[in-house]
Every structure is written in C-alpha cells, then in structure tokens.
Amino acid sequence: MSYGELIRLYFDRSNALQWYWTLYVVIIGGLLAFSSLRQRPDLLTVILVTVLYCFFAYKNLGAIRDTTRQRTAIVEALAGIPMTSPDAARITPMLERPDDAGIRNFHVASDVLTLAAVWAMEWRRWRKPRTVPGDQEIR
Known about the structure:
Elements: H1 3-37, H2 43-79, H3 86-91, H4 100-127, E1 130-132, E2 136-138
Helix pairs in contact: 1-2, 1-4, 2-4
C-alpha cells in the first residue's frame, strides 16, 4: 500500500473508533434516562437491563480494542515506508499509539459507574414509601 492509502485507512479507522465511543455514550445516556424516569421498583427489569448493558459494553469494548489495534498496525506499517515528502515527515510522528490497558480501564470504570447509578436509582425506588389514594403506605 502507498503512504496515502495507509493514511486514509488510518483516518477511516479513527472515524470508526469515534463512532464506537459515540454509540457508547449515547447508550449510557439512554440507559440512565430510562432508569431515572421509571416510577415503580421492578427487580426483574433492573436485572435484565444490567445483563443487556453488560453484553453491549463487552462487545463495544471489543470493537474499540480491535479498531485501536488496527490503527496501531497502520502506524507500524507507515513507519516502514521511507519518508520522501516533507508532509509525511510531519504527519507520521503525530499519529498516536494509544495504551490498550488505559482504554480498557476507562471503559470498565465507566461501565461500573453506570451500573452503580442504575442500581442506586432502583434502590431509591425500593426505599421510597409508596402510597395509594387515602395515604396508606404499601411495602
């Protein structure tokens, strides 16, 4: 592959990576909105939401890691191409090789905090006394 093709491929993979992170943030926002708008406690719903979110988070992290590794492979391929143009000499050193462990740790920490928020909202619903017309408390 030529230098130009590799650069295009690198930025194509960068765009894909950005979409995976955007999807991740949108799903977290939707999940937290759904959890905050629910009125009645329902253990089955929160367990189902937790399991489905864990499946999503696992697959999303896998896609992010795969795409990051693809970008790293492209950067390594670019390093093997002779720098004949001044633009190539300026661009190639700026291409990042992100830390795989840092990506994983950030994603997992965000997952844990998201699920903690979902369960905290559910716990609050269980602790809040429910009343029916006539002010009789139901537990």
